[in-house]
What we know:
This protein is α+β, with helices and mostly antiparallel strands.
Amino acid sequence: xxxxxxxxxxxxxxxxxxxxxxxxxxxxxxxxxxxxxxxxxxxxxxxxxxxxxxxxxxxxxxxxxxxxxxxxxxxxxxxxxxxxxxxxxxxxxxxxxxxxxxxxxxxxxxxxxxxxxxxxxxxxxxxxxxxxxxxxxxxxxxxxxxxxxxxxxxxxxxxxxxxxxxxxxxxxxxxxxxxxxxxxxxxxxxxxxxxxxxxxxxxxxxxxxxxxxxxxxxxxxxxxxxxxxxxxxxxxxxxxxxxxxxxxxxxxxxxxxxxxxxxxxxxxxxxxxxxxxxxxxxxxxxxxxxxxxxxxxxxxxxxxxxxxxxxxxxxxxxxxxxxxxxxxxxxxxxxxxxxxxxxxxxxxxxxxxxxxxxxxxxxxxxxxxxxxxxxxxxxxxxxxxxxxxxxxxxxxxxxxxxxxxxxxxxxxxxxxxxxxxxxxxxxxxxxxxxxxxxxxxxxxxxxxxxxxxx
Length: 454
């Protein structure tokens, strides 16, 4: 332990020199730019707006899969990170007074060894710092000590164990005491005046502190009851507590979405009058473009002809011809979404949103953005086969590919509205239908290939 303390003291200034660089990495990692980047597990969650607000302001972070995990128990390390990030947030801060004590000597500080790597928190762009798995924790603790938000006596063991409601209340209370003194961040209108006596009143129990915070309007009694009755408050609940008193508007997306939406637009068949039996990708996208008012004068054949082509590799363009099916299955006659989106961006605001989960997909559609999705023909079980591309390289790709346009979603019934270009049973009729999410989602999640038209 002494070795860890000495190492920390020796590299204290180095860590803080690197801190701003690391925080910028965290910012780019967690910032949600549009609904397709909002953590999917927040979109329809009861605390989704509150949690995403802190993600937007770079106070709380998501994992590498862009998940916030709102129902997961908040840990002590995460709580420390939240408080430190709150001080460092460019969006919320009033001052940088926490930096004034950086040159003071470090007193006896005990750090508990981290139980997991911090690579997920700082990304993969800072391997040197990532080698010391205590770096992020040390920076955060030193920040809070300098800001007088934590004292060495109050820290205890900062590890990955879940917090309880007492820990949450104590940390919030200490933060507000320091904030009242140094004005680090802005509170909602009138709250600073309400807290004018917070450093003079003596509190002997956590219950007394909790009552004070409720009486002063910092935490609602309803929310306090929720975190107090649960053994370990969740990440979503903790986010809700902080957005209750911080002077920041909620980033509303889930509550602001309609319950249902059907995006009007023309139906285009890939079989009649133009016969393109393997042209479902471009046909679906052209329907999406026209639904948003783009490509009004563009006919299917000219769109298909303009699409980039290649001989073997769909990562470079459409393989073969959309007018000719490869019945021997020697080539993977498709075009991957990033290439198709890049081509179609010449016609309108088209974005490759591959990787979004089903909740993000639903939210995009409820916002009025049609989404082209890569599924399977007839929604059958996906099956794969080997394909040979340039240089004899083998690729194991899905074989029964089919692409459709999601043009609507109904939350009450949990169903999607589909415009399906493959109207093979009757090529003179539209093939549009509602499909249950339970039948749709698992096939979509097989690849999560998607293109949205904005």
